């Protein structure tokens, strides 16, 4: 994903709420991985590309793989939230 696309994306943090509470990307939306299937309608309302982040990139990768298997386009694994934040700020 290109730098300009990163700044126009909706960032979904799939970590648990307690993890999100202790630090997150400004403007990101917390939807824990285990809640993803129950919130698909909410995700469908988001028009921008969706970038999924977590602590290391593992859970966000699972979220992206699940959505791609469901036929979703414009979903990306942003990896760990700290690294993502540094890439966007650069």
Description of the structure:
By secondary structure, the chain is an alpha/beta fold. 40% of the residues lie in helices and 19% in strands. The protein contains 5 helices and 4 strands; from the N terminus they run H-E-H-E-H-E-H-E-H. It has helices at 3-7, 17-21, 40-44, 58-69, 81-89; strands spanning 10-13, 29-30, 50-54, 75-80. The protein has a 4-stranded parallel β-sheet.
Number of helices: 5
Order of helices and strands: HEHEHEHEH
* Poorly predicted parts: none
**Strand line-up of the largest beta sheet:** 2-1-3-4
Rg, Å, rounded: 12 Å
Integer average pLDDT = 91
Topology:
Blueprint: H1 3-7, E1 10-13, H2 17-21, E2 29-30, H3 40-44, E3 50-54, H4 58-69, E4 75-80, H5 81-89
Parallel strand pairs: 1-2, 1-3, 3-4
Brief sketch in words of this structure:
The chain is of the alpha/beta class and 90 residues long. It has helices at 3-7, 17-21, 40-44, 58-69, 81-89; strands at 10-13, 29-30, 50-54, 75-80. It contains 5 helices and 4 strands; from the N terminus they run αβαβαβαβα.
Name the features:
single chain, alpha/beta, 40% helix, 90 residues, Oxidized Rhodanese, domain 1
